[in-house]
Amino acid sequence: MFIKKTNNELEIDWALTLIPLAIIIALFLLLMVFPESSANTIEFLRNIFVGQFGSFYMIFGLGVFLITLWLAFSKFGAVKLGNIEKPRFSTFAWGSMIFTSTMAADILYWSLIEWSYYFGASPFGMKNMSLAQKQDFSSSYSLFHWGPIPWSFYILPAVAYGYMFFVKKRKRQTLSEACRSTIGSKADGFLGKTIDIFSIVGLLAGTATTFSLATPLLSLIIARVFGIEQSISLSIGILLFIAIVYTTAVTIGIKGISKLANLCVLLFAALVCMFIFLGPTKYIIESSVTGLGKMVQDFFGMATWMDPLRISGENGSGFPQDWTIFYWAYWIAWFVATPFFIGKISEGRTIKQTILGGLTCGLLGTYTSFMVFGNFGLFQQVTGKIDAAAMVANGTNPSEVIVTIINQIPFSNFAMILLALAMIAFYASTFDAITLVVSEYSVKNLQNVEEPPKMLRVFWALIFIILPIALIFNESTLYMLQTFSIVAAFPLALIMGLIIYSFLKDISLDFKSLEKETQNIQNTPLILKEVVATESEKNID
């Protein structure tokens, strides 16, 4: 059971608490006071990170996915994360928390509208596609962007963190600590602090994109249902309300997070059932099967297509730069906190169980959302009831497009209320989890089963809404928000690579050491008990 620290012996790491705060406040002021200059700077950075380093994101994503699969089925898959008899959480509670700790309300937001951006695009340089081709690519590319590769960005680091918590018994719960076997004592110095500060700022930037995309939709839904005027003030009021909800949950601790996650899943299930049974059921099922099959068929092509013709200006669309690279960067920005949380709740499971179970739970959630809500909207498009693809292409506010789609379902007002409740629950369930994790970053001597002080959790809960407010006031476009995530993710990808390398180095050396003492480890789950003096740590400096 997770316990709460009640004494006053916890030591706050003020550098990791105050420096990210100062940087975020500076970004807030720049976006508010100099909106045009900020937009120009972001455009300049996009040209560098997408135009020059775009291939890096693609290669990195495929590499992480392949390492994740290899690890699950390797001899290391039998290693158990923690010396307890059975997993700390039931499969349902564990799976619910994995799904709801991910991307918040963006899952619902993008499920409803992402397909419309792809419907008029030209993936793989295909021009003048037939209606059937547009339908299939719209469905399959959404599944790809929310599929195994991005989920690997969470699950593989989660295993590394779980190994650090429950096997290595490390006291610091930061990214720099996860790199210790590679950077040695520098984890306690300037390099370690730099890694952790970059990580926290990158996370805050990435999560700001989440709030800034989905909050206007919540604002529009509430305005339409209750007949009030939509405004920036309403959006900020919604942000503050959500902050109150997830702050309350995070002060309760892991039990509060678990209960909120279960509630979130129930609301999500109710919304799914409504769209399936009141919508075009047969079309949703058949287009889901078709889209999944096409995604599997074209998986490696999607994972490596860079659209090089765009460089010559001939027949290039820039599709992977606008979408695939954006999504990989978007997920990478969240790896700072979400995998930490997944690693924490995976105590008692083997590495193989954590990888395969985590991928399964995550994909079940995201695929259900995109198959049901995405294909509901796609049906309205292909039958000519609405032309959502043209609306987004002509600059219609995405929230307006989503509301237009929802209006096609019977009892649309009830559906919008249910959607709003589910989005708020997703927001709260995600941000209480990452608030708990970032709060743990700020404590120097926190044990694995302890939780940080409540006031520290409240502090970070409030910090998470500063940047989104600036982006909403700035009226940031999707293009600008995409760039924000891509830029923030680049240094984080390098840090993730260092963490994965450090983890594989640790477990390889620990495994070799234990193999000398145990002859039949292949037949039973392997429990590595408090490996604190391995060869890697003896020679760390």
Automatic annotation (TrEMBL):
Q: Which residues cross the membrane?
A: 12-34, 54-73, 93-113, 149-167, 200-226, 232-253, 260-278, 325-342, 354-373, 414-443, 455-473, 479-504
**Protein name (database record):** Betaine/carnitine transporter, BCCT family
- UniProt record similarity statement: Belongs to the BCCT transporter (TC 2.A.15) family.
Q: Name one Pfam family in it.
A: BCCT
The yes or no answer to whether the keyword Cell division is present is no
Any GO CC annotation of this UniProt entry: plasma membrane
Query: Keywords, A to Z?
Result: Cell membrane, Membrane, Transmembrane, Transmembrane helix, Transport
Task: List the membrane topology term(s).
Answer: Multi-pass membrane protein
Q: Name one GO molecular function term.
A: transmembrane transporter activity
Give the location in the cell: Cell membrane
